[in-house]
Amino acid sequence: MTEVSAVVKPKPRPIIRIGLFLISHSLFVSIVCCIAGVLALLLLPVLAKNTYISENALMPGSASAMLSTDDASDGHVFVNKIMSISSMSINSGIEIPEMIAKHIIESGGEVNYHKFQPLSDSFHPLQFFVGPDAGMVQDNYSSTSYGVNTVGIVRAPRGDGKEAIIIVTPYNSVKPTTSEALSLGVAYSVFTLLSRVSWLAKDIIWLAADSRHGEHAAVAAWLRDYYTLSSGDLEHEVTSVKRDGVSNGFRRAGTMAAALVIKVADSSTGFEKDGLKIYAEASNGQMPNLDLINIVNYLAVHGQGLQVRVEKIWSLLDSWWLYSLGELQELIGKVAKSLNPGWKFGIPASDYVEGCTTLASSLYNQALGIPTGPHGAFRDYQVDAITLEFSPRFSSSQRVLFLLHVGRLVEGVIRSVNNLLEKFHQSFFLYLMTSPSRFVSVGTYMIAFALLIAPLPLVAAALFSDASKSKSPGESIPTSPAWNWLYTAKTVLIVHLWGAIVTIIPYFLRQFPDSSPLISLLTWIASSAVLLFFTRAASSSLPFSCASQLQTSEWTLLKAVTVAAAFIGLCLMSVINYATAEIGALLLVPMCLMAVPLRIDATAKTAKTVARGACNVLLVFVGFPPAAFLLSKGALSSFDGVRLDDFWNWIESLREWNSATYIYICMVHLPCWVLLALAVVAAKGVALFSNIQTREQMEAQVHVASQKAESHINDVNALITGMERLGLELFGDEGLEVPSLDKGKRIENVFGDPIPDAINVRPPDTVHTKGSGSRKVSRKEAVIRQMHKPLRRCKKCRELVRHDSRNCGKEKEKNKSK
Q1: How does DSSP classify residue 697?
Q2: Beta partners for 114?
């Protein structure tokens, strides 16, 4: 006979068990991950690696420089001519481009003029997804305010015209400075040399960009016409008419392999000798291939003896806490090395401070999403480009020597790029600089970001689980938990749509140019608040109604969905611009984890709740975008020069440059801040995550009450009377005629526990069936039933036994035989 098999519940998979464990311990995991994320961010200068050249074909410094002193002297003469025209001529804006074109033709190159006008302010909030404008460009030179770029091209004797290297020298054609004239002299010296060499395999384009309307505007206008078709090209496509050797049409070369922007600073501050600053950040945190920076740094240091630097935040150099961290990690490194000489951890404290200031500058510039130089226009077309800013320390009599050193450096970089058979691809495109010779790769700095945002999905899951279990009496909650989640998700979606509308409000405020920045900022904040109020009134779903405050489960669900939305927004932003996502996580994650209604903390009145409430107020204040910007600016520079309208100017610069950071602030950070701040202020002061009495607890209480009232008839009558009153309150005086739907609503109003729509019932275990589905009881089950059968008195033996008078004798014989 078969026996009843035990029902074994399937064991969940290990990944599910790990997830449930992390969710159940979300508080501890959140604290550990946040601390580890901040420590990992502070350890990035220690984890930085030395730069190296990945592409073997570059071979920097493998050939001797060909730029001679005569070429440098010609460049010096060229500089003197520019300065003389600038000081003597009234129409220098026309004569200087003509003089540059004349020298290009004399050196054997092709030349053409490129006229452009600065583009008007146009709002394209999603331009960073699609890139620069494409299509037909219409020429419009009706205005007298236009710039003139002079473009010279040297065709490569060993090339096929499919690739080109760009040299850019921005200058003001109306009133050029000595530094701008020196940068033109460097480019002219290199250009004349390259027009004579035989090893050139890529075309050389020299762009003398007219920067009267801005350096970036001049380069961007030329690139836009280079990659698109203009009406002038259609007119001069077949017959390229030439006047004095200058082409009337738009001259083009091959695909751009790399671009170098050459600038000369007015003074050499902070350098002990001739210095070089490298600017690499482009729009939305894009960076050129690291190999391009590596060859410039190698040739500048080992070839020309220049002192190379990247930008840093100088105010952090005097930070005592940063120097203390440097000394601490240096001490830990020494202890680790004493334990095991193979453990190489820790760097000198001074190097740590230098690395932190450079890393902070790199993070800040990438997070802004604004190019740090004209090279940013090239990165929009996926061309690797950097800006080289030279800082000379010489007298006017040593200009030839300066032109010689800088020209040889540019020649060496061009020679290395000329060796490439394909585009830069071997080295990193995602990295952070801690010095000109040290970098942090994407595989290292993403660890800090991942640790910071790791608690968000765990906290969201834990909050949703608690909200589905806790329902306070009196709450008006739909019966379906899934509907609860969708209802809250709709609320969060409406607030994020409000953020999308807030994004375009500054465009309309820009139509009033006479308003001051402070008035524009206050108008933007006021209009956003009014719009949020009307959005709440129209939707009737936002959680800050004055009539009914948030209940426990509603607030918990709202926080869960908001945390999930913040997690998704930060992850998406990390793909577009890591630096923005990292800084946003530092501001948003603590607020998501710490947000608790202030009324709860005020009701408890303990030291823990008071401290938590103070932290919530501080995080809400710091998380507000204007407050965060002004506090960071004051901490980095000085609070004396901080003004409220600085935030509006900063927002305007982000919007005009189509920075993804502006989209993140308005559509991710601000909606999450509003939801968390309003939930903290508007939530009702009831105990969070309170356990509702289960059915067993209720039955136990009723049983205890009946036992207490059993010995006194008055207590029994009082208990019965109370139950009758409760029945009248639940079902009224209609009795059984009350519809079941009304009964369910009354039970829900009294107990706060809705009747479930469906009940899961487990069918009995069937061992064997026979005939018409009748169930055959097994021997084991029969014995169990017999053992639980109550005793009865036998009429024959007059004893309490399990048999009756018919089998009394047989049972006694069995007992005797045993």
Answers
A1: H
A2: 149
Joined together, the tokens standing for residue 595 give: 């947000």
For residue 342 the two structure tokens come to 């193979």
The rounded distance, in Å, linking the Cα atoms of 149 and 118 is 13
439 near 428, Cβ under 8 Å? yes
**CB-count exposure of residue 651 (10 Å: 0-12, 13-18, 19+):** buried
Residues 6+ apart with CB under 8 A from 578: 285, 366, 430, 442, 445, 446, 449
pTM: 0.76
Token pair for residue 95? 């004569």
Question: Considering only CA atoms, which of 409, 702, 683, 700 is closest in space to residue 549?
Answer: 683
Tens of pLDDT, residue by residue over 488-522, are 888 889 999 999 999 988 888 887 877 888 888 89
- The domains of the chain are located at 69-311+372-419, 465-682, 695-751, 769-817
The Cα 212–Cα 767 span in angstroms is 94
As a whole number of angstroms, the distance between CA 83 and CA 87 comes to 6
Collapse the DSSP code of 205 into the 3-class scheme (helix H, G, I; strand E, B; otherwise coil) and give the result: strand
Identify residue 314 by its one-letter amino acid code. W
- Dihedral sign for Cα atoms in the order 334, 336, 341, 347: negative
Percent of the chain topping pLDDT 70: 76
Tokens of 530: 């009014």
Angle of CA points 572, 577, 579, to nearest 5°: 115
User: Residue 512 CA to chain centroid, in angstroms?
Assistant: 32
Q: Which CATH number fits domain 69-311+372-419: 3.30.230.80, 3.40.630.10, 3.40.1690.10, 3.40.50.1000?
A: 3.40.630.10
DSSP state of 273: S
630-671 confidence digits (pLDDT tens)? 888 887 777 777 888 888 888 888 888 888 899 999 999 999
Question: DSSP state, 5?
Answer: P
Provide the pairing of β-strand 774-775 with 769-770: antiparallel
**If residue 465 lies in a helix (H) or strand (E), which one and from where to where?**
helix 455-469
Tell me the C-alpha distance between 230 and 252, whole Å: 13
Q: What is the largest CA-CA distance in the chain?
A: 142
**126, 228, 491 from 132: Cα distances, Å:** 11, 11, 35
For the ranges 225-229, 487-491, 603-607, 741-745, the lowest mean pLDDT is seen at 741-745
Cβ(730)–Cβ(742) below 8 Å: no
381 Cα distance to chain centroid = 23
**Whether 730 contacts 747, CB under 8 Å:** yes
Phi-psi region of 659 (alpha: psi -120 to 50; beta: other; left: phi over 0): beta
Rounded (10°) angle between helices 442-453 and 26-42:
150
Higher pLDDT, 289 or 141: 289
> What is the C-alpha to C-alpha distance for residues 102 and 98, in angstroms, rounded to an integer?
6
Q: Is 689 helix (H, G, I), strand (E, B) or coil?
A: coil
- CA 632, 636, 639, 641 torsion-angle sign: negative
pLDDT number for residue 271: 62
d(Cα 597, Cα 604) in Å, to the nearest integer?
Answer: 12
Tell me the C-alpha distance between 333 and 344, whole Å: 7
Residue 223 and residue 381 in contact, taking contact as beta carbons nearer than 8 Å = yes
Helix, strand or coil, per DSSP, at residue 212? coil
Distance in angstroms (rounded) separating the CA atoms of residues 693 and 186: 83
